[in-house]
Design brief:
single chain, alpha+beta, about 350 residues, four-stranded antiparallel β-sheet
Amino acid sequence: MSTQIDRIAELAKEDPKRQFFSIAHLITAEALYAAFRGLRKKASAGVDGVTYHMYEKDAARSIQQLYERLREGKYRAQPLRRIYIPKENGKERPISIPSLEDKIVQKATGEVLNAIYEQDFLECSYGFRPGRGPHQALDEVGRVICTKPTSWILELDITAYFDTIVRGQLMEMIEKRISDGSVLQLIRKWIQVGVIDEGRLLVSETGTGQGQTISPLLANIYLHYVLDEWFEHEVKPRLKGAAHEIRFADDAVLCFQYREDAEKVMEVLPKRFAKYGLTLHPEKTRLVDFGRYAEEHAKWQGKKPATFDFLGFSVLQVSTDKEFNHELINRVNKLRDR
């Protein structure tokens, strides 16, 4: 199985335009069992009420039956269970929890899809990818600020990102790489399934259901095309100076050498996002004077040096005679120690 996945990755890397029309056969009973073993044992149960430990008691037989349903086209995705978790601002974030067997199939399918999309995703993307995490993203922010000609930061905040992804456009993006009808059908089932909220079945026309095992990958695919490729191949070549993107899922910052470039991108970005059903938060999306001369500019204006937020951390300015942003480095180290 590992050899076949590696071969899929090789083919994807060799030809960025290759479409994969036969990959469903890689979702074997063995792959499903490995996916089950990779689930979090203490994760919340879905609408079926089945926990990891309950399923584990007869996992071999249950997974074989699950595999047979998949092979015979009898597999049905169950509605998601909606829960709410508190946010730092006092509001609540809705999370949609799939049933345990849906988690298993999504994880096994994600392993195959990741082999393909890891060849496509750009270096600027750090969220929910193998071998990458938040501390690498923060490291990259520090590296760009400290070693690249950076004077302006565009901080992005997408309103209700996971809930506003346009499903039709998402599927069109996926179909650029995947033409296996069985896999496409699975993805459609997962993103179209309803949500049980306080006993009511709610069905929406947008979104991927934040909380589903497959959602982070789908969300990365969407922003790969909406933001990453567009910024790298269409925007940067037209700019006057250097520019860099660092993104972790839907949390991103764009770094610019010149204010003129930053303002130009800030003007076109809402239009670009609106084309794909996304909205930038008008108050949290902002341009920040941040770099070698920012502290001096702030002093002239009688203000404190500006800050920007990334991954829950506020990145602060330091004196221009220092080579590194020690505050950022300290915060990265604290994150690593968690």
